[in-house]
């Protein structure tokens, strides 16, 4: 489908020319002379004022001449039709009046709509920005330059969050010591016997058989008892970057938080107060918030709490509340991928003593210990925590995301090195041979050098729709003998199952018009989702097999980036995507061999 685009200037002559105005000359006269030289019409805004400038231009293209002239005169121009431009004083009001606006909707797959919106407002200073929270979409209305710059910003920020798998081990060690030293007496009692028949007191005769006394048994203790126990919790938590994860192992205990005025019930005179309860967590509670750094290190905001019911508290009126003892570790630590951290030393000690023995005798100095027993109990609890982070997914940050982008000036935003005076910076206002300053090119994979080819003929290849054509090497040797090349960028991508990855197809093909490439991939591990060509590139594709795609490309004149291929990962394997074969055709329909490479999708799942 055709897209609505602003008109492009198509001068009659695109050959470089030289202009010399060493003496002060009227600015509008110079503009008319350049327009006449290249063959297009020039009109002026009514606000234009007469002023004189001097300018020297040597071997400039139409675009280069207009750029230099607009900079010198403090003006900008807008293309009205393929043969006419209007020149306007460069003021904010004139920019609003003459610059065409573009509306574009961005659908975010991973980024938070509020965060991305704030980034756009702070970077490109746009006010015509809307949000659709239901579709997680952003609608932008601004100049073509700002819209293209926003596209680049969104592509760099709409990334899936990193994820980390935390292996946590929580160990509680209890140590109990019991010491008993001394003598423990058995049960003892006194009993008497008497005659039930009455008698005179003067006739009472007390004999030894009428009294009984039991001598207690005696046990001697010299004991020391030590016991140890381990309680282990070993959860695994998968957490996204910046999100908080909580783990609770234990119970929820009701606590009375308020008691209201009692009311009278029945005739028994009983009163029943109103109580308000709150449930609190008792047991093991872990809160973790990770931050994953780009150098594959992880910062953990960690809080560990271990609590238990240690007794009861009397609240009065027959009401009691549990007494809860708590131990807490709260820390921020930074670990490498796979590094284990140990937290220990949070101790709790409970001590109790007791004494028992024969009444009175146990209080006799020196020998009293022979008739008594002393007991001492000491319980010690230690909390030990180990945590090991394993990074399983990193953001899909590619090489082009790290490259700087020329965004024009503070007053006039432009994109990809286009002139700040040109109305629409992304597509050149000239249709074909316009000269454009390019940003720094992405790093290309190194292609191994081949020995210089000999002058020989290569078997004839039948081009679709044409006659048999000899496929031959470039003549001449030297730098001109280098073969045209096609390659994937980046050469290595991290990904995991069900994730979508984008592989850019680029090349070096100066002087060639068309190319055919055969791309292969393992169809059981990858699903081909589609291909998006870059500007001025035409792409047709068809499946040769389930795992092979044939691309027919019409190549641009100056760009080296061709298209973006999208795949969905179906397994957690290391996968290779290859350019198996291909041909490239020059203006005379002669077929040339090409250099190719491959890219590898490495599994980001920890194995």
Task: Please sum up the structure shown.
It contains six helices and 32 strands.
**What is the averaged pLDDT score?**
76
* Total beta-strand segments: 32
Helical content band: 10-25%
Give the N-terminus to C-terminus distance in angstroms.
46 Å
The unreliable regions are: 208-215, 217-227, 417-481
- Indicate the radius of gyration in whole angstroms: 44 Å
Global structural class: mainly beta
Q: Any idea how many domains?
A: 4
Q: Work out the strand percent.
A: over 45%
Principal-axis shape equals elongated
Query: What is the number of helices?
Result: 6
Describe it.
The protein has 607 residues and is mainly beta. The chain has 4 domains: 82 residues, Phage tail protein beta-alpha-beta fold (3-Layer(bab) Sandwich); 58 residues, Ribosomal Protein S8, Chain: A, domain 1, CATH 3.30.1370; 191 residues, no CATH class; 119 residues, Immunoglobulin-like, CATH 2.60.40.680. Helix content is 10%, strand content 52%. The protein has 6 helices and 32 strands. Strands 23, 25, 27, 28, 30, 31 and 32 form a 7-stranded mixed sheet that branches. Strands 9, 12, 13, 18 and 19 form a 5-stranded antiparallel sheet that branches. A hairpin with a 5-residue loop joins β20 and β21. α1 runs antiparallel to α2 and α4 packs across α5. About 14% of the residues have low confidence.
Give the SSE layout:
Blueprint: E1 17-26, H1 27-38, E2 41-44, E3 52-60, H2 62-73, E4 75-81, E5 84-89, H3 92-98, E6 101-107, H4 113-124, E7 129-132, E8 137-143, H5 144-157, E9 163-185, E10 190-192, E11 211-213, E12 218-233, E13 236-240, E14 245-265, E15 270-292, E16 297-316, E17 319-336, E18 341-357, E19 372-393, H6 399-402, E20 458-462, E21 468-471, E22 485-489, E23 492-495, E24 500-508, E25 512-520, E26 526-533, E27 538-545, E28 548-554, E29 561-569, E30 575-586, E31 591-592, E32 598-603
Parallel strand pairs: 2-5, 23-32
Antiparallel strand pairs: 1-3, 4-5, 6-8, 7-8, 9-12, 9-13, 9-19, 10-11, 14-15, 15-16, 16-17, 18-19, 20-21, 22-24, 24-29, 25-28, 25-30, 26-29, 27-28, 30-31, 30-32
């Amino acid at each position: 489908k055709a897209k609505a685009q602003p008109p492009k200037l198509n001068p009659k002559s695109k050959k470089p020319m030289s202009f010399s105005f060493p003496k002060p000359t009227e600015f509008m006269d110079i503009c008319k002379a350049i327009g006449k030289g290249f063959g297009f019409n020039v009109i002026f805004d009514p606000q234009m004022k007469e002023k004189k400038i001097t300018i020297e231009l040597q071997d400039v293209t139409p675009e280069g001449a207009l750029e230099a002239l607009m900079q010198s005169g403090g003006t900008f121009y807008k293309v009205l039709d393929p043969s006419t431009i209007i020149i306007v004083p460069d003021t904010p009001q004139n920019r609003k009046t003459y610059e065409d606006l573009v509306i574009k909707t961005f659908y975010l797959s991973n980024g938070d709509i509020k965060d991305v919106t704030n980034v756009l407002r702070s970077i490109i200073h746009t006010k015509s920005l809307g949000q659709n929270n239901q579709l997680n979409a952003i609608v932008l209305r601004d100049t073509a330059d700002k819209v293209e710059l926003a596209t680049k910003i969104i592509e760099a920020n709409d990334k899936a969050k990193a994820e980390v798998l935390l292996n946590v081990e929580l160990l509680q060690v209890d140590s109990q010591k019991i010491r008993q030293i001394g003598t423990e007496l058995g049960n003892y009692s006194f009993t008497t016997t008497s005659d039930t028949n009455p008698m005179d007191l003067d006739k009472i005769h007390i004999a030894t058989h009428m009294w009984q006394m039991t001598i207690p048994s005696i046990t001697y203790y010299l004991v020391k008892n030590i016991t140890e126990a381990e309680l282990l919790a070993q959860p695994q938590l998968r957490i996204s970057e910046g999100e908080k994860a909580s783990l609770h192992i234990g119970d929820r205990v009701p606590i009375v938080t308020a008691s209201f005025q009692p009311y009278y019930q029945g005739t028994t005179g009983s009163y029943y107060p109103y109580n308000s309860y709150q449930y609190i967590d008792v047991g093991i509670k872990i809160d973790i918030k990770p931050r994953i750094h780009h150098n594959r290190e992880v910062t953990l905001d960690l809080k560990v709490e271990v609590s238990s019911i240690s007794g009861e508290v009397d609240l009065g009126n027959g009401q009691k509340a549990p007494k809860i003892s708590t131990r807490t570790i709260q820390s921020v630590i930074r670990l490498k991928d796979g590094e284990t951290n140990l937290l220990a030393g949070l101790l709790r000690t409970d001590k109790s003593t007791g004494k028992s023995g024969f009444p009175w005798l146990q209080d006799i100095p020196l020998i009293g210990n022979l008739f008594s027993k002393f007991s001492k109990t000491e319980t010690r609890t230690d909390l030990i925590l180990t945590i090991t982070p394993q990074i399983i997914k990193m953001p899909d940050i590619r090489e082009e995301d790290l490259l700087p982008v020329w965004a024009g000036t503070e007053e006039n935003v432009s994109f990809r090195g286009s002139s700040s005076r040109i109305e629409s910076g992304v597509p050149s206002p000239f249709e074909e041979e316009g000269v454009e300053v390019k940003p720094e090119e992405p790093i290309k994979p190194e292609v191994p050098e081949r020995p210089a080819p000999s002058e020989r003929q290569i078997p004839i290849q039948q081009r679709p729709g044409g006659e048999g054509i000899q496929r031959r090497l470039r003549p001449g040797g030297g730098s001109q003998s280098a073969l045209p090349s096609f390659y994937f960028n980046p050469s290595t991508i991290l990904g995991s199952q069900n994730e979508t990855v984008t592989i850019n197809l680029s090349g070096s093909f100066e002087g060639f018009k068309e190319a055919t490439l055969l791309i292969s991939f393992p169809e059981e591990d990858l699903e081909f989702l589609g291909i998006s060509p870059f500007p001025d590139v035409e792409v047709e594709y068809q499946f040769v097999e389930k795992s092979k795609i044939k691309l027919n490309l019409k190549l641009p004149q100056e760009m080296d980036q061709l298209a973006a291929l999208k795949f969905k990962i179906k397994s957690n394997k290391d996968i290779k995507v290859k350019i198996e074969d291909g041909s490239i055709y020059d203006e005379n329909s002669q077929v040339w061999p090409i250099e190719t490479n491959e890219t590898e999708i490495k599994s980001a799942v920890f194995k």
